[in-house]
Amino acid sequence: MLILMQQVRISITYYIIIYLVTKIYNIKEVYYYICLGNKKILGRFRSVFTNDQEQEIVNYLIDMEKRFYGLTINNIQTLAFELAEKNNISHNFSVTKKMAGKDWVKGFRKRHPEITLRSPEATSSARAQAFNRPNVMKFFTILQNVQQKNSFLPHRVYNVDETGLTTVQSKCSKILALKGRRQVGSLTSAERGVLSTIVVCMSAGGNFIPPMIIFPRVRMKAELQDGAPPGTIFYCHPSGWMQLDIFTEWFQHFINHAKPTAEDPVLLILDGHMTHTRNLQFIDLARKNHTTVVCLPPHCSHKLQPLDVSFMGPLNTFYVQAIEKFLRNNPGRVVSQFQVSKLFGEAYIKAATQMTAINGFRKCGIVPLDPNIFDDSDFIAAQTTEIALIDPPIDEIALIDPPIDKIAVIDPPIAEIAAIDPPITEISISENKTSNNQGETQPCSSFTVSPVHVTPIPKASRIKARSTNRKKGTAAILTSSPYKAELEASKAITPPKKRLFNKKKPLCKRQKKSKNTATNDEDSDAECPYCGGTFSQSKSNEGWVRCSKCMKWCHDGCAGCEGDTFICDFCKTLSKVY
């Protein structure tokens, strides 16, 4: 066999035509091409684009996906047609539809198996903008200094977060059904469920603090506690959301289980919710009980919070399975508040594993501490709006070697000071710009008109000015002395009473009483569902926006909405069942 292949190659070297070679050695024409260079041929079909051109298209698709502007199948079909037309490449695409065919897409995906069809996870614009290198590096710098000062062991590093569970499953599980059936249904308890808040806390060593459940009601009943995980505590509030006093009670529950001491302190990592950062009683209690509290950067919990990264997803999946099992085993019954504890208990036991907790902290780069856990590709999405360059200068928020007690904190009204003992390492703006430029797609010479020119990468020319004087937050140590002092000072300042909107004249005398009553109730003291802050505590010219579904008011900074109309995240969560 080897001798035959050598003879074939010698014959090709001497320019013997293909026909004679195949006849002399009694081989097929395909084998001739194999001997020529081990190349696979496609018969009479040829690719529209060369290998280099297709690789450039692949790189463009990956870059757009990282920027949260991924292309669909129809988009890539249109892109292929426009590239062939503008580069004068011979093709057999549909001129009437101005799109490449499905066969070309199928072959393209087969030639490039690294490209696959995925269902993306919805990510808000605020999260895409806020997760940038300066914010993340500042958080890790604070963690590094805190760790150097106290040397926290993995089992003494905790993360706490709240999540909402409804009586209606957010997404039904896939089931087996007849192929070709147009519509497949699955039973739910109602059109819209009742939301209860769950507070979960875990450590980097795999320990879990017993959870808390907040029911949207006024009075507690013993039946609500049936089937809950052992040690669970229960509270009631008309809204069903976390409040300042309820979070303080949870922290006392946390102290009873974690038992922090001066010889064995505890590090608690949490997000920038109003009940955390504006809770003076909680901060005093943490300082007295040897607990260091570090706050995450705003809108970065989807990448930096271990519970969001590893625990909440499996918990929601198991909770949906528990609801479907209950409905299947109890025909005619629906899930109400009295079954939430039992269903949550079944899901919590399955999700709360030691490996889940360890992987969550490792994936976020917290334990073990790894500031380089995120590379340039993770920050590409923030380049669309250049959020790091629009913010105030880095030196104004104390990022470059401040002295003790001079680190910026997260809460908007007091975002200028916080404290850590070791100095903070400087983060250079020029380095950030360099890394951003490296992440951008550069034109390639394989195309005369490249994909970037056909479909340009989205770039915001200018960010709309914020309609409020609410200061942006950043990572901070909430238990530092300067933070507490600034919080006390801000609490002492009582802002003037404002009205949410101008009161309109009643249409007639008969409606006057009910109209004024409804207006006074809304104007009295609106509460932001995101942070828990009330309208009476807000500063002057601070923007508020109203949800078009539940009609609740919230800070436009908390909602991440610049317009006058929007739908809050709570309504979006409930609408997933439709």
TrEMBL record:
InterPro entries from the xrefs? CenT-Element_Derived, DDE_SF_endonuclease_dom, HTH_CenpB_DNA-bd_dom, Znf_FYVE_PHD
Q: Which Pfam families match?
A: DDE_1, HTH_Tnp_Tc5
Please give the start and end residues of each transmembrane region: 12-34
Q: Which CDD domains match?
A: PHD_TCF19_like
Question: Which controlled-vocabulary keywords does the entry list?
Answer: DNA-binding, Membrane, Transmembrane, Transmembrane helix
Q: Which residues form the HTH CENPB-type domain?
A: 41-118
Q: Region Disordered: start and end of each range?
A: 506-525
MF GO annotations: DNA binding
* Compositional bias segments (type: Basic residues): 506-515
One GO term describing the cellular component: nucleus
Q: Which PANTHER family match?
A: TRANSPOSON, ZINC FINGER PHD-TYPE DOMAIN-CONTAINING PROTEIN
Instruction: Please give the name of this protein.
Output: Tigger transposable element-derived protein 6
Q: Which organism is it from?
A: Schizaphis graminum
